[in-house]
Write a structure and sequence with these properties.
single chain; eight-stranded mixed beta sheet
Length: 347
Amino acid sequence: MLVEDSLVVRQLLIHIVGRDPRLEVVAAVASGEEALATIAQARPDVVSMDIRLPGIDGLETTRRIMADRPTPIVVIADSIEDSSLRISMNALRAGALSVVEKPVATTHAGYDAVAAEICTQLRIMAAVPVIRRRPIGSEWAGRVAAPIPVSAALRVPESASVLAVAASTGGPPALARVIGGLPADYPLPVLVVQHMGAAFMEGFAAWLNGVVGLTVSVAREGERAEAGHAYVAPGDRHLELGAGGHLRITDAPPVGGQRPAATALFRSVAKHAGARGIGVLLTGMGEDGAAGLLEMRRAGASTVAEDESTAVVFGMPAAAIRLSAAGTVLPLDRISAHLARLAEGVP
């Protein structure tokens, strides 16, 4: 189902989706009210959601769909600079799965790439199960993975020096919850990889800065990572920890098809922080981060994967768990407290 108030853009989206044999348009509506009235009858597998709508906007429409008839939602954003981007990020927090750029005229140089990305996201997200999840009870204490061999030199407890966190599909709200749950005076720098279109990374960092207590910014080459500050990988660039706690931004080839890649970040933390690193792998599709998290664990670092009970997409955490890369598996609402204890030297 396509939700778009502009007739021109709506017809363009119908054309784009209609060319893809994997997809079929079951409804195309011009407002949030129409979307809410139509969704039960149309029963779409995925919704393409405009944010700027007359009447009920895309954010509120997303909230109502996720409350009444949970359905995968892909946000189509018409701007990467103004308030519509902030609304888009809040729609992700309300349950939308991803955000992509709105298509432009077919004569535009970037049209084919944008059209392909829209169709790919719609097809992938259509397969993501979105359900109302039962709250985790207070008796849930998490799971601890079996030990893996590490050298004797790495078994000596050390105070942590850096926290690395990565996520993909479903990541923005998960990151907001985990990082937002840390105290404003958290004693470690936080390095963040989020798979998202390059055009959205500056806005994503600005949005995250507004919803968490830590200062959040896009990472810059050569800057020193400071405690109480979160550094987000820039669009289409790897973020790595370098010597002396300085950040490295590279255009090295994608790792596992991803740039920025969680594995690239985790490997650099394993190399330069060793047992003083903490690694966290959250919701996401695919396997990015699993191999890097294993390198961190082998270096003696504390490693965490999000539990299936709260992950929007369990792919990345599941891959880490299969490799025994995650020393601890926790639901989303338990991760921040665990990270606070680790920063204080409490296992």
